[in-house]
Prior knowledge:
Structural class: alpha+beta
Number of strands: 9
Distance between the termini: 22 Å
Largest sheet: 5 strands, antiparallel
Oligomer: single chain
Radius of gyration: 76 Å
Amino acid sequence: xxRSIPISYRMADAFFRNRWLFLIAFLVVSGVTMGTLYLRSxxxxxxxxxxxxxxxxxxxxxxxxxxxWVSPAQKNVNQLDVLLNGDFLGTALSNAKLGRPxxxxxxxxxxRYALLRKKLSTNAQSDNLFSIxxxxxxxxxxxxxxxxIQSQYIQEIxxxxxxxxxxxxxxxxxxxxxxxxxxxxxEKLLTDYKRTNPGQLPEAQSADIGQxxxxxxxxxxxxxxxxxxxxxxxxxEQRLAQIKPQSIMEQTAAPSPLNIQINEMKAQRDKxxxxxxxxxxxxxxxxxxxxxxxxxxxxxxxAGAAEAQDVTHTKLQDNPEWQALHQQLVQATIEQxxxxxxxxxxxxxxxxxxxxxxxxPAEQRALTDKTRDYKVVQAQYDSLLQRRxxxxxxxxxxxxxxxxxxxxxxxxxxxxxxxxxxxxVMFVGSLVLGLIIGLVxxxxxxxxxxxxxxxxxxxxxxxxxxxxxxxxAADLRLPPPAEDRRPGGLRRLLAASKKQDVPETDQESDPVxxxxxxxxxxxxxxxxxxxxxxx
Length: 535
């Protein structure tokens, strides 16, 4: 009975038969893989170290104090990662002046830019030290890119700190210009007010109040003097009323004017009567006039009129006492009138000053408003100027402290990334991959081989049991006869079936007929019926 061959034997036999395929596949795959990995891993890593100096200029001057939980190095790493997402990287690459420029525009889809973003890394080495690393195929480009990024970051930190200062300075400049115009306007209003209202200044108002007090005191003194003058004048008038200004030196009597007129008319009538009759109309008219005057004289005499009485001519002389008193009275009167005029003028001035003093509160309020507006605008303007100088100093200090707080450490040198450990890993990986590919090719070769090598192959192909297997022999490997061109497997099966039909005593040894085919290591002998052989 046929005994099945162990699977281990079959595997060893298959590996032995396909040893050259396995060896070639192993060497080719391992060599190609090792070469590819080595060439692709032949990169260089450039690292730029930057130290964060916490005791910078600003901290030394006491302007700021860092009390955050995040380390200074990690803060810079986070800030650099944010900057790398903007135009910062494009500016740094343009400053690097690469032989092959890298286009950072996303629309350009530059593969080198994507590789750069992938290979570029930033790490915090310690609390005060962070690194910028780049793994690149060109050592010179890696050094230039890392150096440019480091330099641009230090410069960007200063510009970023100074950017807020620029914005603040721009705002302060606009406010300073606005307040300068307002200050000039308020100053012009105050100057015009002082020029048009010189008496409304605080100094002039104080002088007006003092002048009013002086005028009132002067008026009071003049009133006292006027009262004394009036009393003196009254005494003089009373004294003058008691004495006469003249004394009688000589006295003579004379007819009254009416009597003189009557006498003159009578003399004219007498003269007319010398050549006229009494009945003459002229004489009668003259008589009528004389009678009328006499009647008038008599009436006035009865009435006590002075012009109807006879006039007594008296020759008088001046009274020296009266003259002296009169002179004093005239002088007192003049002084009284002068004092009255002076008091009137003084009263007018007092009224004017009283009106001005009365308007002092309103004038002070107007002047105070204009002065306050001017002072407020001036104070704000001075404050803005002072604030601008302070912001300018803080900005310069921030820019200086930014450059002084970040200090490059060491030299930037690109080193190969392929080390001994990596070479061992690549070598072992290449060998493992070559073994796997070789084994896969051996398995595929066996799977593609349809020849009958074992009894199980015949059973699977023909569906009949295998009773025995004849080992392969070199002396049996002869070319088949020309008349038999059937497939080796089928030919062997037919021969085996015929051999089973003939008794062993009658069979003759035929080496040509009984030799196995060249394409099979053994010929299986099986007990098959005629029906099985035909099938």
